[in-house]
Known about the structure:
The structure is a single chain. 29% of the residues lie in helices and 29% in strands. The protein has eight helices and 16 strands. A seven-stranded mixed sheet has the order 1-6-7-2-3-4-5. A seven-stranded mixed sheet has the order 9-10-8-11-14-16-15, with helices on both faces. The chain has a two-stranded antiparallel ribbon with strand order 12-13. Strand 3 and strand 4 form a beta hairpin. The radius of gyration is 23 Å and the shape is elongated. The N and C termini lie far apart (49 Å). The relative contact order is 0.12.
Amino acid sequence: MFEHDVFEKYALKDVPLGQDITLMDVEWMRPWEAEWIKVTRGADADPYVIGYITPVSVSRIAHNGLEISWYPNHSDRFHEVKTFLPADQIAQAVDISAYDCRFTIFVRSGWLRQLHLQSHSLFAMIDAADMSHEIEMGRIDRTKLVALRERIDAIAARHPDVSFISFADSLLLKTNWTVGMVGSSVGYTYSPEAMIRLFGEIREAYRSVLDLGIYGVFAQGSNEYYDDPLLHISPTQNHISLNSLGLPFAQLQRIEAAARTAIRAGEHGRCELYLDEDFFNSLHFAHHEARACPNFAEYKPKLSSTPGTYFYLDYDELCAMVKL
């Protein structure tokens, strides 16, 4: 295929980096090719109505595939999802430089459907500030901890789409979201603002019960369990699985560690929120320029050759910037 002179076929190693690229299902290869050939002949044709597109960019070429950023929503938020496109799922990469056509990579149907239909996850790690000091001073007892647990129970009941794992003074939160695709019953359910609102509820619970502030670290990532529920609880009730790989939680811990180091070094002050850049950038800002927040620092993500960025700010400050 694509033997006509108008097409420029590319090997994996020659795919361009850092530019807008379209992914298309292999089922559209032949009609797409035929329509572009009609264009070269001056016939009545419109290749832009062929098939459905998935906008991406390539950040790195590996021997076994491409590290890509996928943009499932760029109309009312900058929603970027970093993922990997295996080489064996690529049928052909092609460009048409003589016409106004975006560089296109045709991929296997099963991989593309999984990308759109699998569930992804948002994660948060919330901790009480100064808890160790309060315990040493004798200000925290079992009565208060049970009262806090009951408040968290009540909050969890209002948010059945979020899993809550608590350790008295700490919480792990996870919620799933999907993108969906044409012809499926799966829809776009991404709403990171809901997790920010939830942080506000939890903050009030810790304030009123323990008289303590909290801070939260937020990130997002792929959910390798795909369509499994938020939690798995064993029949014997003594095994709980968050149905997720440990990588997202490693990212949360690395952001927290980097923030602690930066605070001790005087590089920035203590804040209530530490947000991974992908999470922060995807928020629905009230004004576009709010995304240019100057409060950011670097951390070293796990399994990445490039530094990551986290944003640090207080809850009320973020609420003034974002449409909650």
